[in-house]
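Q: what sequence does this backbone want?
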């Protein structure tokens, strides 16, 4: 093992020197080198980790690391067993996962404290459902080389085929294996730049004529490994195959078992540099509840999720706590959230299907789909929806209010279930014709939109934890009409704003109507509030801060001609804010 130690350390240090050589000028002024290692393989276990290929299903093995600051990972090493008499190494993939419940559908679990699913005993401290970043040799986003440390290396146990859902998860492992001990050195064509957080590394290697098994390393970490940062916990390694996806099993606790069950790390290292974070500007997206931990993946792509921030006490957006003070109170219409917290309210119960999901199944009350339960305002009925959302950053530009609800022609879901969105999609204010899912045609000179049937929007800002002390009275936001010249009207004496062809106070009036299309985003661009500016209602605006609350209300009139389905994440507040 001493021989292995020196060879692996040498290979790692060569890669580190290459990185530092390229950063020699940069690092002195802007960055510090970063290096982390779990140490040498200990021969206790090796776990499969491979992409799907002919006759082989995908397997992912994961082990964790912690970053205390923004860090750019330029390269990595991981050490594994390559089996077979004449193996050929093909594709190499490296994925980064965050820790559950981030990037995960918590709704499919049992909830706290265990977060079990029908497939696994727990998801606590597991990798998330989906990857946060990935790099792939086949896509040209990473390059790799290999170094054989030993032509014959034996591990006491393996996990490759014995990955099963409960109650058959504890197999004891697949037994010992022998192969070549190989260290893979991976260079990322574009560095993986990650904010401070707890992550899992998942390397995958395609081997023809054999297998790649990721070798374990001591837990707790011992030299030449580097310890975890103070205050953080070194989690054990996890594994899943395509049949278990999106769930994970603990290699030691769940699969190997025993009393006490062993726990394992995996052998890898990371090389890069810390990245100072300028006080610049970055996008943000905010929803009801903790933005990064409660979002539903069905509604947010990876492009969006990188701008959803953790509002917990240790999260990146801790300055914007979900709960502060006693406003808003809970009332009979509150469907999610507590007093003083971000909330969703609706006139009707949120017990309807996610009509935007064409893959859904089931009937009331057991809908099975990828979304949240919706509150329905049927055609011919009035109703309302309210969202209370805290700003995760101090806005430095205009604030977008983005609405996305399901909109169907009357009674369409009752007739066509989850296929209704592809047959009977609608928009608010449309003139519904006679027959099934028919839109009325109009003659020239007649508007195809019935404006009296359109929902009306109200948006009000409330002070939060870090508000200007003078900001004690809420004020309405003013929206730009889009498209327009974006020229606002001001009283020549008082400088108070007035409604005009380019701007409109979001006061729930008939001039604050919006048209929603089925399952599509509708963006209302609101003016950045400025301390001292008087709006069209005579209210004083104030500069907004992280933690201030935006209340959005949508009133659906009785003249409504379609079925409207909205839920807790149907409203988003988004924009550009001061970076962290």
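A:
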């Amino acid at each position: 093992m001493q021989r292995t130690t020196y060879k692996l350390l040498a290979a790692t240090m060569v890669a580190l020197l290459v990185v530092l050589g390229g950063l020699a000028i940069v690092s002195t002024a802007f960055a510090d080198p970063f290096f982390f290692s779990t140490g040498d393989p200990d021969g206790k276990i090796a776990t499969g980790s491979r992409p799907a290929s002919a006759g082989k299903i995908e397997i992912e093995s994961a082990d964790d690391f912690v970053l205390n600051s923004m860090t750019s990972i330029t390269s990595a090493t991981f050490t594994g067993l390559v089996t077979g008499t004449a193996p050929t190494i093909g594709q190499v993939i490296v994925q980064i996962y965050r820790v559950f419940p981030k990037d995960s559908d918590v709704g499919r679990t049992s909830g706290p404290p265990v977060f079990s699913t029908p497939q696994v005993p727990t998801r606590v401290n597991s990798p998330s459902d989906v990857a946060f970043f990935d790099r792939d040799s086949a896509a040209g986003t990473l390059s790799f080389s290999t170094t054989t440390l030993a032509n014959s290396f034996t591990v006491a146990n393996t996990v490759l085929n014995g990955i099963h859902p409960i109650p058959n998860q504890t197999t004891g492992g697949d037994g010992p294996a022998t192969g070549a001990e190989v260290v893979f050195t991976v260079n990322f064509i574009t560095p993986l730049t990650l904010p401070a957080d707890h992550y899992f590394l998942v390397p995958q290697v395609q081997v023809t004529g054999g297998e790649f098994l990721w070798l374990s390393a001591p837990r707790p970490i011992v030299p030449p490994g580097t310890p975890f940062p103070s205050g953080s916990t070194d989690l054990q390694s996890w594994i899943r195959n395509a049949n278990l996806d999106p769930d994970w099993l603990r290699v030691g606790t769940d699969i190997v078992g025993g009393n006490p069950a062993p726990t394992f790390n995996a052998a890898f290292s990371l090389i890069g540099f810390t990245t100072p974070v300028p006080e610049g500007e970055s996008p943000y997206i905010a929803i009801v509840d903790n933005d990064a931990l409660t979002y539903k993946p069905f509604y947010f792509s990876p492009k969006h999720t990188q701008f959803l921030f953790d509002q917990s006490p240790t999260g990146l957006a801790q300055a914007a706590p979900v709960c502060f003070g006693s406003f808003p109170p809970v009332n009979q219409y509150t469907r999610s959230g507590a007093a003083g917290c971000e909330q969703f309210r609706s006139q009707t119960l949120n017990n309807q299907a996610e009509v935007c999901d064409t893959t859904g199944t089931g009937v009331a009350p057991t809908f099975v789909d990828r979304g949240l339960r919706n509150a329905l305002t049927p055609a011919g009925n009035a109703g309302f929806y309210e969202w209370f959302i805290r700003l995760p950053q101090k806005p430095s530009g205009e604030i977008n209010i983005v609405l996305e609800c399901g909109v169907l022609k009357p009674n369409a879901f009752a007739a066509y279930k989850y296929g209704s969105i592809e047959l009977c999609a609608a928009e608010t204010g449309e003139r519904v014709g006679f027959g099934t899912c028919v839109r009325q045609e109009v003659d020239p000179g007649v508007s195809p939109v019935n404006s009296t049937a359109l929902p009306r929007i109200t948006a009000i800002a409330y002070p939060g934890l870090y508000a200007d002390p003078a900001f004690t009275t809420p004020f309405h936001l003013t929206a730009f009409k889009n498209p327009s010249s974006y020229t606002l009207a001001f009283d020549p004496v008082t400088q108070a704003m007035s409604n005009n062809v380019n701007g409109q106070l979001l006061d729930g009036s008939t001039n604050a109507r919006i048209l929603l299309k089925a399952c599509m985003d509708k963006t209302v661009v609101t003016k950045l509030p400025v301390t001292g500016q008087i709006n069209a209602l005579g209210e004083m605006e104030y500069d907004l801060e992280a933690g201030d609350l935006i209340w959005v209300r949508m009133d659906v009139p009785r003249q409504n001609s379609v079925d409207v389905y909205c839920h807790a994440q149907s409203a988003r507040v988004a924009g550009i804010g001061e970076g962290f």
